[in-house]
Amino acid sequence: MWTVTKHQKLHNHEFVPTTKSYLLRSHRSVSRNHLSYLKDLKKSGVCVADDLRFLKTQSGGSPLVGFTSRDAYNSLCTDVLNNLDGTDSNTLIEIFRQRQSSEKNFFFDFEVDDESRLCSFFWRDGKMMRDYELFGDLLVHDTTYRTNKYDMICGPFVGMNHHCMNVMFGCGFLLNERIESFVWLFRSFLRSMNGKSPQSIMTDQCAAMAAAISQIRRQSLSFIGQGCRASVQFDLDGNGMWTVTKHQKLHNHEFVPTTKSYLLRSHRSVSRNHLSYLKDLKKSGVCVADDLRFLKTQSGGSPLVGFTSRDAYNSLCTDVLNNLDGTDSNTLIEIFRQRQSSEKNFFFDFEVDDESRLCSFFWRDGKMMRDYELFGDLLVHDTTYRTNKYDMICGPFVGMNHHCMNVMFGCGFLLNERIESFVWLFRSFLRSMNGKSPQSIMTDQCAAMAAAISQVFPTSRHRLCIWHIGENSKKHIKGLRNQKDFLDIFNCLLKHTDTEAEFELYWTSCKLFTETGILCCHCLRILNVHCVSEVPNKYILKRWTKRVLEDENAGIIPPSQCFNVPSSVWTLEITRKFQKLVVYCQENSEARKIFEQAVLDAKRKVEHEYGPIFFEGEDCDVESSSGVIKDPSNRRLKGIRRQSLSFIGQVYRVGNSHPDYVYSLDIF
Asked: In angstroms, rounded to a whole number, what is the distance separating the alpha carbons of residues 590 and 596?
């Protein structure tokens, strides 16, 4: 019998809050009834996410469901695996073997897991092979069919014949859409076709499928030339001379067409004249792509150029590395050392490769360090400058001072834009600033830079440039940008929403409810998702009902009862309303009195409920010297552009816990 012999009750950490205890693994389980319920809904065409939302609504919230979304998906997947009992699998494999023995050129393959459960299989017959030999230049592969009782993924290989009709090249079934599953399937297909790869492959936007295709493409040569015995053997004789002793000329595969032989590595080379020509054009501001197009035109086509675009870029990069002979690099490092010995707080660092060639360096002086101590909460870093003769990447670290002017915090140069290069640069910068990280970092959408920031500045907030976001929107949401008034809403969200909550509130929102109090189609969709069959009375304005004439008032419900928004969003909205009201009242003394009296009345009511509020500058006189309203001091002539004036609002402090806020308003 197990007996408790010791029990230590003290913990050195906080307990999980009771509101989150349902997330503990020991508290979660998917019952048989729930699993059966989810399976029935899934068979009916309802997605699992909608099933879970319905369960949460019926149960009264996530804590009362008893399991998470991941638990539901895992249970459904485990149930599929348990149903693969081997009866159908053995029957299927036996059918394949019978067809292979009776039909010519029939091919099949299958894969099992560690528990001998069938997880993948593929087959094709002789007709499919003949069709592929004729029409296999284009291959279409998709995996959108899950109509079998085991919920396995069907992945047919399809092409098009000379009558523009679909033809089947083969078919496979997979248990999941992982990279290794697609790699196995594509290898089986390629092996069944004697290593013949298609010229083009069309798929959907599945990342795992794309990765598997690229992996198979890199290995395609080993399939095409598999078992080829063509070779040349050289032996060294007694005189130290190499002699051909064996030459096997027969190949078991097709040769490269003469029209494509110029692409072979042995046929390509960038001559010195071509390299010098490309360098001169690049120095003149002509991009390499335009240089190559000009060379192809002058030579009479790509086969007569003698090299590919990649060869040209590699030769230019190699030439840059060869030019780093150490003369300029040693001079630069010597200058840095002299400044370090003569200037206080001067810092520099550099990095060399395995051949002792300079590949990265960084520096900052004492003034940059002082500016960073004062204004280092925001750091802007960009690498779009390549104006030096070594074509190294310049990456300045920039901030903004109290005059809204740019200040430099440091500068670095890199040979490439890889993750490890940015990691070295950011670590050098952080070390030069005594480990002080910025609160926010603004960059472009460079993936390598983002990865390096997450490693070196884990506590900093990474922000993207608005201009780059706008440019990327042209690629990813082109359809939305073509809609009427979308650009105005999109630009307003980018430039005028200050918090994540505010952005989420307005994104793809028509604002019909927030502006007029009328429920829109988006709100009705939310009610439908939560199984609310009738619109609650508080959302129905009396003015739109038949009883509107029973009372003199229209019965408009106050906004506080119509909707409830986050505090940060409400603060920004009410601030903007006050700004507009201040601008409207500032030139009229009577309007000023009304506005100030309203503020004092609101202040007294809030103080009565929640305690005193202290304003600074309450005794200042805001009235003009006379009650007469005069014309503006300057009259703008026709054709002269408007100038912006700034009005600094009243500085206030609420209690002792809120900082001071200063608002600047454009009044013209």
From this structure: 10
pLDDT at 34 (0 to 100) = 85
Cα–Cα distance measured from residue 668 to residue 654, given in angstroms and rounded to the nearest whole number: 30
Contacts of 409 (CB under 8 A, 6+ apart): 364, 368, 371, 372, 376, 379, 397, 398, 399, 429, 433
Strand intervals (E) in 254-369: 347-352, 358-364
Q: Nearest CA to 173 among 76, 127, 108, 94?
A: 108
In angstroms, the CA 137 to CA 481 distance is 37
* CB within 8 Å of 495: residues ≥ 6 apart: 466
* Number of CB atoms found within 10 A of residue 308's CB: 16
pTM value surpassing 0.85: no
Instruction: Reply yes or no on whether the pLDDT at 408 is more than 90.
Output: yes
Is the Cα dihedral 184, 186, 188, 194 positive or negative?
negative
Instruction: Determine the angle formed by the axes of helices 309-323 and 272-283, rounding to 10 degrees.
Output: 80
User: Is residue 378 classed as helix, strand or coil in its secondary structure?
Assistant: strand
Please state the φ and ψ torsions of residue 82, each to the nearest 5 degrees: -65, -30
Helix axis angle, 179-192 to 207-218, nearest 10°: 50
Of 17, 44, 43, 33, nearest to 66 by C-alpha is 33
SS3 call for 273: helix
Please report, as a single letter, which amino acid is at residue 556: I
Specify the residue for token string 């309802």. Answer: 46
- The candidate with the shortest Cα–Cα distance to 130, out of 161, 164, 165, is 161
Q: Output 310-319 pairs: Cβ under 8 A, ≥24 positions apart.
A: 311/268, 311/269, 311/270, 312/270, 312/274, 312/278, 312/288, 313/288, 315/270, 315/275, 315/278, 316/275, 316/278, 316/279, 316/282, 316/288, 319/275, 319/279
Q: Which pLDDT score, from 0 to 100, does residue 472 have?
A: 79
The arithmetic mean of pLDDT across residues 560-574, rounded, is 63
Task: Give the whole-angstrom CA distance, residue 116 versus residue 191.
Answer: 23
CA separation for the pair 205, 321 (Å, rounded)? 38
- Taking the C-alpha atoms of residue 19 and residue 14, their distance in angstroms, rounded to an integer, is 14
Q: How confident is the model at residue 81 (pLDDT cuts 50, 70, 90)?
A: low
Integer Cα distance of 123 and 170 in angstroms: 6
- CB 616 within 8 Å of CB 651: yes
Beta bridge partner(s), residue 145: 154
* AA letter at 336: F
Return the structure tokens found at 102. 């009776």
pLDDT of residue 429: 96
In whole angstroms, what is the distance from residue 513 CA to residue 557 CA?
13
Element (H, E) at 365: none
Mean pLDDT of 612-632: 49
Q: Work out the end-to-end distance of the chain between its first and last CA atoms, rounded to an integer number of angstroms.
A: 86
What b/e sequence results for 357-396 when a residue is b if at least 16 CB atoms lie within 10 Å of its CB, and e otherwise? ebbbbbbbbeebbebbeebbeebbbbbeeeeeeeebbebb
